Amino acid sequence: MFRSPYKYFWLTFLLIVIDQVIKVAVHKYLQYEGNEVPIIGDFFKLHYVLNKGMAFGMTLNFLPKGYDKIVLSLFRVVAMFGIGAYLVSLARKKANPGLLWCIAAILGGAIGNVVDSTFYGVIFNNAPVDSPTPWFHGQVIDMFFFDLYQGWLPEWLPIWGGTWYSTPIFNFADASIFCGVVVILIFQGQFFEESKPKNDAETADKDETIHSDNIENLSTDFQEEATEESESKPQE
Q1: Are residues 92 and 175 in the same domain?
Q2: Which residues belong to the active site?
Q3: Distances (CA, A) of 174 to 2, 13, 26, 109
Q4: Which pLDDT band, with edges at 50, 70 and 90, does 35 fall under?
Q5: Which residues form a coiled coil (predicted)?
Q6: Which backbone phi and psi does 95 adopt, to 5 degrees?
């Protein structure tokens, strides 16, 4: 009997709801990009920022302008269905429940950002001005800002040397994806190797059973042969 994936999809649904409630609240109460509310002094803030790229503000700058966003949005949609199918497949294979919870968290984060990029350009009219259509060009709302460092990076650093750096601002969906991936990396030995000892034990039990059956069969054959010989031996 395979493990039902439905309870894991409930976690996915819960994370999507939490993510969207936070984003709508930030949009409603902070209103404009750049507005912020300190939570723990200057260390942790709610800072309203629109992100047209991926998690933590990463973008696809190598693609032609106008196509980068729609490619990213379509990629998110494909990834969403792929992760969902993977979750169902793992459940059918009776994978470790911890792995299934992590995949469910990753799926919830992926769908949360898909909602933004697909619909927010229409609902909140936050698509970039030069977008060919508001559909699939919505900007993701980010808000969690741990202000650990802001400033110019040293020139001697490769690639990023001499550029301005600020700690990435992220949202609840990003955090769900990040936590799911980190937990999988930490416990990958347990998540992916758990079934191996079990299979080995089952194989050993089967081999032992077969061996015992063979011994019993040999013993029975020997007794039958001995009986036949004693019966066929002439009496003195």
Answers
A1: yes
A2: 142, 174
A3: 30, 15, 16, 6
A4: very high
A5: none
A6: -70, 165
Claim to verify: residue 26 and residue 62 sit in the same structural domain: yes
Q: Residue 36 falls within a domain, yes or no? A: yes
Q: Compute and round to an integer the Cα radius of gyration of the chain.
A: 30
Domain count, the chain: 2
Instruction: State whether 188 and 200 are in the same domain.
Output: no
Query: CA 55, CA 45: separation in Å to the nearest integer?
Result: 18
The Cα-based distances of 13 to 65, 78, 107, 135 in angstroms read: 33, 18, 9, 23
Could you tell me the two tokens for 168? 């990435």
How many angstroms separate the CA atoms of 154 and 150, rounded?
A: 12
Over the stretch 84-142, which tens digit does the pLDDT of each residue have?
Answer: 999 999 999 999 999 999 999 999 999 999 999 999 999 999 998 888 889 988 999 99
How far is C-alpha 235 from the chain's CA centre? 82
Give the predicted TM-score (pTM) of the model.
0.76
Question: How many angstroms separate the CA atoms of 44 and 162, rounded?
Answer: 26
Domain hosting 42: range is 6-193
